[in-house]
Specification:
Elements (H helix, E strand, L loop, with lengths): L2 H47 L1 H15 L4 H41 L2 H16 L1 H15 L2 H43 L4 H11 L6 H16 L5 H26 L7 H15 L1 H28 L12 E4 L6 E3 L18
Antiparallel strand pairs: 1-2
Length: about 350
């Protein structure tokens, strides 16, 4: 009987269905990933604890090999003991606490069911009122600013939404696909901890440019620690990750993301370094789209200023430009520099 009421009821049902579907998908993924992830973490902890037995065996082997040369044996054993001490300090002081904190952090999330439910309720309210919030924001903008400036604000906010939404959702999908490919490949290659390494590679792949390098280092150490007697497996793993990242950077990433930011490689690296240094991991994630919005705003201002002066907006037209004639606006090339030993022309006195 009432189209407005029916539309509101349909939006509420669609929002609830969206939230339920998202929870089911996330729950299914966690039910598949978390058990194997915990098994991998416990295996790594046990492997680190068994390193002491391995160090004792290696020490006896070195003693047997160097019995005929006491001086060399003393020097080698001194260097070996120092290396083992540093490695033990690193494992006991950094790696084990980090893994224990990961497990305890996961267990603490189980006790946060109440906060999760409240968050889901808020999400449903926001989804139902999304169009209302947008309309109210536009109404406020047009009431405070002239129409021309308000149009510019609305267009810029719409552009920001498109950049952030496209980049973050595309990057998450790209990282999920890379993680799945990594898990399948490691399982086929029979390398250790496939689920744990796939999660590390997938999560760090969210960070542009530096993500693959951040993820490959701890993953390679895990493969190496799993079996010190076969370091060639670690080399195979590094080669596979390099091939996977080339596939992601040249084929998969451009297909999913396209040129969503419009930034060159230098500005991408600049944005990650600056925002990552200020805001940490979150800055490394949102720094690229945020800088892309800032870059587009500055470019728009520059182009508008050039149009007002009847000058070219193409960057290619400024290569090799020496100056511009202020009257005819014709470009002048860069003057050639004369050799140092060339005779200088005498300036004629002005009449």
């Amino acid at each position: 009987k009432s189209r407005v009421k029916a539309k509101g009821q349909i939006r509420l049902a669609a929002s609830i269905l969206t939230v339920v579907e998202g929870c089911l998908v996330v729950g299914a993924l966690l039910s598949m990933v978390v058990p194997q992830l915990l098994v991998s973490i416990y295996s790594v902890v046990e492997q680190m604890q068994s390193m002491e037995n391995f160090s004792e065996q290696l020490q006896r082997l070195i003693n047997d090999l160097l019995q005929s040369n006491p001086i060399l044996e003393h020097n080698v054993m001194q260097a070996y003991e120092g290396a083992v001490s540093q490695l033990s300090d690193f494992v006991s002081g950094f790696v084990l606490p980090q893994m224990v904190s990961v497990v305890s952090g996961f267990m603490s999330t189980v006790t946060a069911v109440k906060d999760f439910l409240i968050g889901m309720i808020i999400v449903i309210y926001v989804l139902c009122s999304k169009d209302l919030f947008c309309a109210q924001a536009k109404k406020l903008t047009y009431s405070l600013l002239p129409v021309k400036k308000a149009n510019i604000v609305v267009d810029n906010l719409r552009f920001t939404h498109r950049i952030f939404g496209g980049f973050i959702s595309g990057k998450l999908l790209d990282s999920l696909i890379i993680g799945i490919i990594c898990f399948v490949a490691l399982s086929v290659m029979k390398l250790p901890y496939p689920m744990l390494i796939a999660v590390i590679i997938g999560v760090t792949n969210i960070i542009p440019f530096f993500g693959p390098f951040i993820g490959v280092v701890p993953s390679a150490l895990l493969v190496l620690m799993a079996d010190f007697q076969q370091p060639i497996r670690c080399l195979y793993f590094i080669i596979f990750i390099l091939i996977l990242q080339q596939f992601d950077g040249n084929i998969l990433g451009p297909k999913i993301l396209g040129d969503s930011t419009g930034l060159s490689a230098f500005w991408v690296m600049f944005a990650i370094l600056v925002f990552g240094g200020v805001f940490g991991f979150v800055g490394m994630l949102v720094g690229v789209p945020l800088f892309a919005v800032f870059y587009a705003l500055v470019s728009g201002l520059v182009n508008r200023s050039l149009r007002s002066k009847n000058l070219s907006e193409k960057t290619a037209d400024y290569y090799g430009l020496g100056s511009i004639d202020p009257i005819t606006l014709e470009p002048r090339p860069i003057p050639e520099e004369q050799p140092a030993d060339a005779p200088k022309e005498e300036k004629k006195p002005e009449s």
